[in-house]
Write a structure and sequence with these properties.
rod-shaped; single chain; mainly alpha; about 290 residues
Length: about 290
């Protein structure tokens, strides 16, 4: 097969391969750029995920500590509530007792024990000075007996009344303590709930970012696979072009060698003929051909 015929066969194939070579290289480079972009996105998202996971753990610790505080404060509130119930029970007992002795309380709603005692002391001093004689002395004893009974009742009344005032004050104090304990519980519950809500929000963001990272990784894998495939086609095309070029070059070199050999043969035959030597029939035919 002549060189022109060979070039006619391989030239279109070589041209087609060369024209598609740039397209494959550009497509491969575009896909590699996508791979790098996906890789950067995935790595950045994974970095954010790592930071958020650390924050989720931190918020979980805060929430757990807050829940522990809530439990402790609830126990404290329960103690305060029990104290308040106990004091109220005592108060109801005193009130019931005072209601049962309503007439006696009514009688003793007059002078206080101190006033009764002062009146008795004054009568005793008067008696000692001889202020009561004869029939009036009997009146003195009756009055002292009466005042003594009133003093006893007044003291008893004051005893329950004082206990009542003390219990009322204790109730108010216990109510304040119970309310403060309840407020502390409510505040701790809010803090625990806020920490829990933030933890859930961060966990949801972690899930969203993980989906984004997985999507970027999927895009990276797909683009890399396509880039590798295009690169393989690019290499195959490049090798085909080089093979065609090498083939043509080899044929050209072989043709040049044949021409050179024919020229050498003709030159030798002419030299032999000019020197007067006799040429064979085959040599004459070869000289005629060339």
């Amino acid at each position: 097969m002549e060189l022109d015929e060979i070039l006619e066969v391989f030239a279109p194939a070589k041209h087609s391969l060369e024209s598609g070579l740039d397209e494959k290289r550009e497509l491969r480079d575009e896909l590699n750029a996508k791979v790098r972009a996906y890789l950067d996105t995935r790595n950045e998202v994974n970095r954010q995920v790592k930071e958020l996971i650390s924050e989720v753990r931190s918020q979980k610790e805060i929430r757990d500590e807050a829940n522990t505080r809530v439990r402790d404060l609830k126990l404290e509130r329960a103690v305060k509530s029990d104290e308040l119930k106990s004091i109220r029970t005592d108060l109801r007992g005193i009130l019931s007792k005072l209601e049962d002795s309503g007439e006696k309380l009514k009688r003793n709603s007059g002078p206080s024990p101190a006033k009764i005692r002062a009146k008795m002391d004054a009568l005793e001093r008067k008696y000692e000075r001889g202020g009561f004689t004869g029939a009036s002395e009997k009146g003195f004893f009756r009055e002292m007996k009466k005042l003594s009974q009133e003093l006893k009742e007044a003291k008893e009344s004051n005893k329950d009344g004082g206990r009542l005032s003390e219990l009322k004050a204790s109730v108010r104090s216990a109510e304040r303590a119970q309310e403060e304990a309840h407020n502390r519980v409510e505040k701790a519950v809010i803090s625990a709930q806020e920490a829990h809500d933030l933890m859930v929000e961060l966990s949801e963001e972690v899930d969203r970012l993980r989906d984004q990272a997985n999507s970027a990784h999927s895009g990276l894998t797909k683009s890399k696979k396509e880039a590798d495939s295009i690169h393989s086609l690019y290499i195959v095309s490049l090798r085909c072009i080089h093979s065609i070029q090498d083939m043509i070059k080899a044929i050209e070199m072989r043709t040049d060698e044949n021409v050179s050999e024919e020229k050498t043969e003709v030159s030798d035959l002419m030299s032999k003929l000019m020197s007067g030597d006799t040429l064979s029939t085959e040599e004459l035919m070869s000289l005629q051909r060339n």
